Structure to design on (712 residues):
């Protein structure tokens, strides 16, 4: 049987009506991979929810399929967002699928075409303004309030509805809820969505317990941990470089209600976890994703676990989203040798001496 | 129920024994997305098998999981390949998972670190030789013949075994075999593997008919179409830039036995299909993948179809694998305007005038 996508699979939990188009790029249905090596090292039963294998390479597809389907249901022919990354890629892909216009507003400082190329190849029209990101979002809100254009940034309430399906999948894949759900926190919509999903599954009797929600901000953008917005957030994990999270309150509520916590990790810890995930488990995720794994290492050091807990780390996006960080992280250039069997064998021996 | 990966799912069709480690990164189980807009345009029932959503971003994971599992079963602790692209990424990921050494040999001309970074972040050790790709492969063959190191290039017979599972999935997802299977042809292992898979499913009674296999080489690398090796193959579709396909004979046999054909498409046709898939269906695939869709367009122009055929195009890798082509393909830079609602609305109107 062909997988039918999120709207069909979870329609009883979603605002899907007779008039909602059954839009899908076969988002969701992403792997839950057991972290065999790290489970052993940490004394946990550790899994990765690998959201990088959504169609556009990040978890944003879950919320976007719902938001775009509802936009069409409500008669919209144009969607709009302020975003330089994963949100714009997801918006553009679903707009392409339905033949909608997709307008992406970005600040005109440091346009990284690589980050935008994905949205543009899907056909998004990109407009750069002489102002910062907050101003771009403000203009998007003004325009979409007055014109028949649908806002698909995270303030669109359907985004959270779609995103909560990831919690359903985790439970369906495990056969129960995990003990702990570890997740990166940037705009804080994803932790809010997972918690909503777990609670709904629990209310329906699909799971008998709820996980503790542990969220991790990057140190340079830890608004929630500090209790105040960060004016100039900075972190290598660009997908969570957010100084004033839109879903701040619901994220705090998720942590409190679940007896979890919002904590933080440093860029160094993020990059270390980023390399560890790839080199020890064979999973390549974008730096922001590694915040969840870095966080689990931090909790382990702090004695948080009693041992054996079932822990799911959400890996929010694919490592291929940020090739420059990968290139910077590998450190060594290839070893160059002559084209002989002997020279290559000598090089292998040398590398083994270096701990190959 | 959690998906268990290819070795477990299709073990009765694979060389899996009691001693084969059940290695998995949850490769396979990739989307079969109906091409809603192109089906209508072309008068076909057209689907994309989106192999870019395998864990390392290409179909190579299917063959590699089998090859690496067998390497371990046979006592190997080191694997080796000559590759600058998808093969090395897949080899490195599975080696990381099992704690094996992975040695990648490349020619020292024009090393594109971006292409290699993925393998390196998974922990592969890369050695560049003063010689070309053919010489690198030759050295890999010499070394693996003499030392306890397993060759995982496509001459490793387990690769085809793993890759044939994609044909099983297509049939499982459709509930039958398609009428036509369109696929890019580079080294020609993939068309050989699909045909093997379809025949095995047919022999077991899982499907009642077999598809016509239509394969497409890039014009600048069309060795099979020309009937002779191409000394200096050249095409924008780097993943099929191969002048002397390793699986030449089995590819020709697949086309002949299935009443299909090996044909070719130009770089222009490939890039056009590459943009069409993204902008009209919301699917981002690497340029080589687009050869299958470009080929279907070509066959349509040539009157090959009677109409309504069920056609599956294999999209072999994710578009994020080759960000530079995406940047080159988008053409336009973002439009820069002042930070006012009026200026942005004027820009939108202008873009709509340009056919937004």
């Amino acid at each position: 049987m062909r997988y039918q996508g999120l709207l069909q699979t979870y329609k009883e939990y979603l605002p899907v009506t007779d008039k909602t188009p059954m839009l899908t790029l076969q988002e969701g249905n992403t792997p839950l991979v057991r972290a065999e090596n790290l489970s052993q090292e940490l004394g946990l039963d550790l899994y990765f929810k690998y959201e990088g294998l959504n169609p556009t390479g990040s978890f944003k597809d879950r919320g976007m399929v719902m938001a775009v389907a509802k936009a069409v249901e409500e008669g919209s022919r144009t969607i709009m967002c302020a975003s330089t990354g994963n949100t714009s890629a997801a918006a553009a892909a679903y707009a392409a699928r339905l033949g909608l216009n997709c307008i992406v507003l970005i600040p005109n400082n440091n346009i990284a075409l690589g980050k935008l190329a994905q949205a543009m190849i899907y056909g998004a029209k990109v407009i750069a303004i002489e102002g910062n990101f907050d101003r771009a979002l403000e203009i998007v809100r003004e325009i979409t309030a007055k014109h028949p254009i649908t806002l698909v940034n995270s303030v669109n309430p359907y985004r959270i509805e779609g995103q909560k399906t990831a919690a359903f999948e985790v439970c369906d894949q495990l056969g129960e809820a995990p003990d702990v759900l570890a997740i990166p926190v940037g705009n804080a919509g994803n932790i809010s969505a997972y918690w909503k999903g777990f609670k709904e599954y629990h209310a329906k009797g699909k799971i008998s317990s709820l996980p503790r929600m542990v969220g991790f901000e990057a140190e340079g953008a830890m608004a929630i941990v500090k209790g105040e917005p960060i004016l100039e957030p900075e972190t290598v994990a660009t997908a969570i470089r957010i100084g004033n999270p839109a879903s701040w309150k619901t994220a705090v509520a998720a942590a409190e209600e679940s007896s979890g916590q919002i904590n933080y990790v440093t860029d160094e810890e993020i990059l270390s976890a980023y390399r560890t995930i790839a080199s020890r488990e064979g999973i390549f995720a974008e730096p922001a994703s590694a915040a969840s794994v870095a966080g689990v290492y931090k909790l382990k050091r702090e004695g948080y676990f009693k041992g054996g807990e079932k822990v799911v780390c959400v890996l929010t996006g694919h490592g291929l989203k940020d090739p420059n960080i990968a290139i910077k992280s590998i450190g060594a250039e290839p070893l160059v040798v002559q084209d002989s069997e002997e020279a290559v064998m000598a090089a292998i021996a040398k590398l083994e001496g270096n701990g190959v």
